[in-house]
Design goal:
alpha/beta; Rossmann fold; Arc Repressor Mutant, subunit A; 2 domains; seven-stranded mixed beta sheet; globular
Amino acid sequence: MPIATRNTLSFVQIISMKHVSILALRDSNFASIVDARSVLLKVNELLALNHQPKAFDVQIVGMQGDTSLSDGLYSIHPEVMTDALKKTELIIIPALEGDMMSATHNNRFYVDWIVKQYKKNAEIAALCTGAFMLGFSGLLRNKKCTTHWQYANEFRYFYPNVELIDEKIIVEHNGLYSSGGSNAYWNLLLFLVERFVSRELSIQVAKYFVVNLDKVNQTPFIIFNGLKDHEDTLILQAQEFIEANYPQKITVDELADKLHLTRRTFERRFKKGTHCSVIEYLQKVRIEASKKELETGRKSIDEIILEVGYSDAQTFRDIFKRVTGTTPVEYKNRYAR
């Protein structure tokens, strides 16, 4: 048997073709729709070249006629309407753009159909900020997901009953898939190829689109911006004090005394308002400041450690690795000029 044939047979594990619905949502990111379709059709193309049946029956699904996107720059033409599609096996929710609450509200009439399909055992993949649509549907209640790191605070504010793991590139929970920021959806699409076809074919597709396969965390890309949409003015004062004085020694007791609160009350209110403990918040502010210094490349790591408020280099390195998922040296090599 020729080697090419043996390789072909080794990476195909298809039992039956899976119907995939890519939603033509309003206020959605055009590229995420096109990329999702391109990846799945590329899988079919590679299989056809090796005389194998298609893995995916891909359709753009909408609730109306053409959907205008990006201020009319693009238009998406649905191939089938939701009321005509009784069953699908995988729903792909594209990334949303603009104000997330407005975007989900503009697509609210999709929710009943999405929930109905999930109850019929369809799986759902939300690309990037498409997680807001999943949260809006109620399907994520008491489940885990991820989304673009820049929208993490907003997501937690509107969906407190969802466990957001914003440092992860991909999260799967009970047939609900989500991906991190922007281009992280490529990793989710490749994960789905591996999940429903094979690892080997996922690698072939990754090579074709020149995508770095198996990225796990988006922590190196996160820019910390403390949650301030809460209405607790005392906690806002504490946040502002930390951000203005992070190089100095700051204790929880000191902050509680400044605000005339007991330590227990202060810690409880701080956690409720910011979704961080006081110490976590201080650490993230310091690490964010150190990242900016590392990006300029003008100072040594030892100088930066002292400037952001740490006296012990190993403590700094341990916290930096925990917060960013990488070491200070690796981070500097990646981003410094």
